[in-house]
């Protein structure tokens, strides 16, 4: 069955138990498939980016929607019943949420009117963008800059195991979202996946390339620096391979498993 996440966020678990280890944070609008079998209110789901785990079925809605995909690109987005800020929002969605909707004429150009199934929402115009418009350029060097800029926008976001939102994010979540918000796919894990990346040498690293360790992944941003979300450091930070830098993090230079490049980047 095809469903989508209909809560602002929903955790995916290792076991069919809300108290078990979190493996991913599913944002609103994430598409999932699963069989009819239920495990005490949980179902084993696979996301559209290939990640699997158990999700509370109450957080999922059958996907009967049609229209274009709109992505929340601001840190969060309030959806309103009317094109008016004075009223309370119907729902608040985190960055990276997807709204499948048909666009309609809004009486106020500050808002985008989205027909979402039987519901009509008004989203602040600067908070959402059509998924088809996320990629600003096909040029590899400019694309790299766009990805790095997106990653840097998460600086100081707290660390959250399995997180993918500005409420908290982990290492692979940071890399995944930085690519996703630029219109590109990446596997959401701290291990390289040949469906999305190819291995390269450390000397070949360019901005937006990925560096994998045992249980950790970082993004190279140039000038011997990389950005990552670290539990040890408490969140998203910039670290350096330069021994003379105050941001030098010797352990991560010593423990590199491999470097990799997105198949979308030359």
Strand-helix topology:
Elements: E1 2-5, E2 9-13, E3 22-27, E4 31-34, E5 42-47, E6 52-56, E7 60-62, E8 68-72, E9 76-79, E10 91-94, E11 98-104, E12 111-116, E13 119-124, E14 128-130, H1 140-152, E15 164-165, E16 168-169, H2 171-180, E17 197-200, E18 210-213, E19 216-222, E20 225-230, E21 235-240, H3 250-254, E22 258-262
Antiparallel strand pairs: 1-4, 1-7, 2-3, 4-5, 5-6, 8-11, 8-14, 9-10, 11-12, 12-13, 15-16, 17-22, 18-19, 18-22, 19-20, 20-21
Helix pairs in contact: 1-2
Descriptive account of the structure:
By secondary structure, this protein is mainly beta. The chain folds into three domains: 61 residues, SH3 type barrels; 65 residues, Roll (SH3 type barrels), CATH 2.30.30; 123 residues, endopeptidase fold (from Nostoc punctiforme). Helices cover 11% and strands 39% of the residues. It has three helices and 22 strands. The strands form six sheets. Strands 17-22-18-19-20-21 form a six-stranded antiparallel sheet. A hairpin with a 4-residue loop joins strand 20 and strand 21. It is globular, with a radius of gyration of 19 Å.
């Amino acid at each position: 069955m095809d469903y989508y996440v209909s809560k602002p966020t929903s955790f995916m678990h290792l076991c069919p138990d809300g108290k078990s280890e979190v493996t991913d944070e599913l944002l609103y609008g994430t598409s999932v498939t699963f069989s009819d079998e239920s495990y005490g209110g949980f179902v084993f789901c696979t996301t559209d980016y290939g990640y699997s785990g158990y999700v509370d079925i109450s957080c999922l809605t059958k996907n009967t929607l049609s229209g274009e995909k709109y992505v929340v690109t601001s840190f969060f987005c309030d959806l309103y019943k009317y094109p008016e800020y004075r009223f309370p929002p119907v729902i608040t969605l985190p960055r990276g949420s997807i709204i499948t909707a048909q666009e309609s004429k809004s009486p106020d150009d500050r808002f985008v009117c989205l027909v979402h199934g039987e519901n009509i929402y008004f989203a602040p115009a600067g908070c959402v963008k059509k998924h088809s418009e996320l990629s600003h350029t096909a040029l590899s060097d400019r694309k790299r800059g766009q990805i790095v800029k997106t990653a840097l926008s998460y600086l100081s976001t707290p660390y959250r195991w399995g997180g993918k939102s500005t409420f908290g994010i982990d290492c692979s979540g940071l890399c995944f979202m930085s690519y996703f918000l630029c219109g590109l796919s990446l596997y959401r894990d701290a291990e390289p996946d040949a469906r999305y990346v190819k291995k390269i040498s450390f000397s070949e690293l360019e901005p937006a390339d990925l560096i994998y360790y045992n249980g950790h992944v970082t993004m190279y941003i140039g000038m011997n620096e990389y950005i990552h979300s670290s539990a040890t450091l408490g969140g998203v930070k910039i670290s350096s391979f330069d021994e003379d830098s105050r941001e030098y993090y010797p352990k991560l230079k010593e423990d590199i498993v491999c470097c990799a490049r997105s198949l979308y980047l030359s």
